[in-house]
Write a structure and sequence with these properties.
This protein has helices spanning 6-10, 16-31, 45-55, 60-71, 112-122, 127-130. By secondary structure, the chain is an all-alpha fold. The chain has a domain at 6-71: Eukaryotic RPB6 RNA polymerase subunit (Alpha-Beta Complex), CATH 3.90.940.10.
Length: 140
């Protein structure tokens, strides 16, 4: 294919500044592993990006949306509609992170030996240790 020029792309993206932004963003996407929609023909990523825009294999609106999303620092989260997520009544809501108020003054006490015994009971046994053998893990 002959070299792509700006004139090939201007009819798709009329603003030259926007064309440069879109092509550079697409070239960065290609460099980071995005799939090419045209044959590379031994061209570099900026030329491939311009060719994709000129041949409309990647819609410029999609590139524009991706560029805007990459620049945004605060992404808006769509709130669920009232019908989709009904409001739970106040008396039925769970109290998260709250213990029994009367037990707030009491502090649990555990010795190091009790802690070690508890941790040993939590560790899973290895399948090879069940078969016998000498030493830990059945290796000898």
């Amino acid at each position: 294919m002959a070299r792509v020029t700006v004139e090939d792309c201007v009819d798709k993206v009329p603003n030259r500044f926007e064309l440069v932004l879109l092509a550079s963003h697409r070239a960065r996407a290609l460099a980071s592993g995005s799939a090419m929609t045209v044959e590379p023909d031994n061209d570099k990523n900026p030329v491939v990006a311009l060719r994709e825009i000129a041949e409309r294999t990647v819609p410029s609106d999609d590139i524009r949306e991706d560029l805007i999303h990459s620049i945004q620092k605060n992404v808006e989260v769509d709130e669920p509609e009232a019908a989709a997520a009904p409001i739970v009544q106040q008396d039925r809501r769970p109290m998260l992170g709250r213990d029994e108020q009367s037990a707030d003054g009491a502090v649990d006490f555990m010795t190091e030996e009790q802690l070690l015994r508890g941790m040993e009971s939590m560790t899973p046994t290895e399948p090879s240790s069940a078969g016998g053998g000498s030493g830990p893990g059945g290796r000898g």
